[in-house]
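tool_call: predict_structure(chain=1)
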Amino acid sequence: MRNKKLMKKVIDLDTQVLRTREQSLRVMIQIAIIRQAFGVKNDETNQPVRDYERDVILSDDEIRKQFNEELNWLNLAKERSDLGDVKEFENRVHYFIDGVRFFNASLADEFETYVN
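tool_result:
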């Protein structure tokens, strides 16, 4: 992925005015997986952005492991029959998938099959 495209997304997420808890959760989940996947450091958003091809540094299996952790939290909330938590963790799973879709649509599609 081109670094400029990546950094545009990271900076957009990083500088959003967060008005609701739901928006905060969405931004937190998406920016975390995108930063981790590409190894984006915090100070990079304050520097001039260079354009080059930037590789994903997490393997698909590492991303799957993180996705499975989100699913485990969702399943735990379902076991406890806590509807508020179930909704929050469902959202977390979908936000994670949206973050992955930004850089790996096929992996995001795979994750969708687990929640639909």
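agent: The mean pLDDT is 95. Proceeding to next step.
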